[in-house]
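_Full entry_
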Amino acid sequence: MITTHRQNIWRYKRHDALSSLQLRNYIRVLLATFLSASVYFTVKSKISAESLARYGAPAVDILIEALGHPEMGIRIQAIEALSKIKEKRVTFVFLEMLDDPEREVKKSVIEFLGTRRDSRTFPALQEIAATRTDRELHFLAKQAVESLTKADRRA
């Protein structure tokens, strides 16, 4: 059976509607959808990740589990979803993700850490900003440190 792109988009938008119903068992279905690969990988994983983020704390463990997925795109979507959930342990997990082998994942983590006012993020970002082996990561970390410094001055 061949489905059209429009039918697939509609099917995946249902995730959003079901997410608002707060069905606990649906979290596992979202995870399966999020982690599965298909032709519509980016649309499906993005919508599923956004739906998981709306669950908040109950979805944190599942999204943290997705950070170990071998596919870089899945890890980045999990980072974006986790960045929307206000939970202290997320920052600790992201600090560990700075050791990810993919630089795109590191970039996403650095951008997130630049928005988190947590005493643990500042030293890690300063360390990356001090090294110039990867200029883009150096620049992102430097910007993150500056934004955290400005936020501390305002507070």
Remarks:
- The domain at 1-86 is CATH 1.25.10.10 (Leucine-rich Repeat Variant).
- The mean pLDDT is 78.
- The chain is about 75% helix and 0% strand.
